[in-house]
Design brief:
Nucleotide-diphossugar_trans; 14 strands; 376 residues; Glycosyltransferase; alpha/beta; Spore Coat Polysaccharide Biosynthesis Protein SpsA, Chain A; Galactosyl_T_C; 13 helices; transferase; transferase activity
Length: 376
Amino acid sequence: MNFLVRLKEFAGVLIKDIRRYRFAICSPILQGNGDPSWVRICNRNEKLVVNPDGPGVLCDWRWSSKLHACGVMPSWGLHLQKRVFADWPIRFSDHHVNATSPQVSFLITHSGDDRIQQLCQVIRSIFAQVDVTVECIVVDFSEEPIAERLPLGVKYRHVATSHLKPGWYKSWGFNIAARMAKGDVLVFHDGDICAPDRYAQQLVAHMIAGPYEAASIQRFLFYLSKTATETSYTSGQLNTKPPETVLQNWKGGTIAARKDSFFSIGGFDEGFVDWGGEDDEFFSRCGELNHLRFGYLPFVHLWHPSQPDRHGQDNLNETRVLPERLGIKIDLRIEELTRRDFGNPLRPDPLIRYKDRLEDPKWKTVETLRASRVED
């Protein structure tokens, strides 16, 4: 970055951001809805909507964003990280006894050897949940089973994919896991994101004791560096280095739904294969549920090499498939998906991936044009 541009950004943060960051991080004052002040941190050009009925805020903009000040002055990212995890600690446990009737089921899809260490650490954060009974289900698409490499207590299923076109079948894995789950609340969770130890407790309060059918209560996602991630494996400490990024308004990574509500809207869409699109599409259908979207919990993302094709211009899931699917009215998507045999461990439904059907005029006519006729 040009030195003068960098200097201008530094001066802007110093003059316009540091005072409000210092107040939000250091102040013991709670906001009117009970939020600590750090929950209200956002970029200068962003607007938060405060939950009038409980904790949390809603980001009043469409896409996820990074906290600019924490990127310009990483030390403030570390100050914020230490503060939020003092309120909502992340802990790890190697021991877990599965309850006969868990209240919350954490569901993870996995494939390959590259991120097993991250997966195990995430599972340990799930095992450390307090005050509620949980189970952790891993559906694994690796060539060889990895059950013996996971912490004891995981409910594990290895699913063969040799009969399918190579790809990342995250939606299919989530649906298989949902069919296996015993909990009334399902948490669809990425295998590289550690959760605070009262995450499940909060979900039970909102979704079993409370009225909500779906919940997205995440506020910040702290991306740890490679060094900090490796330190967490050996010591369990997360606040040793400034985070590389602090993300907000993120829809993927973790989302909860009541089991009956999840099946009523058709589960995850198994037509999405490989990276991108499935989380946004599912999130849009959760709009048909009583969906709690006010965020107040922090999470940690464990470092791993980035997926090179995830957000590229050639990612058809994001550039073409997702717009196509979101162009179909939600009730029609739900009608279509609930008719499918989703969560069948023998094969996904549909067998042909959406991105392989983009040039099929029949698919576009049946799906997209039908929606257009209804709107007209």
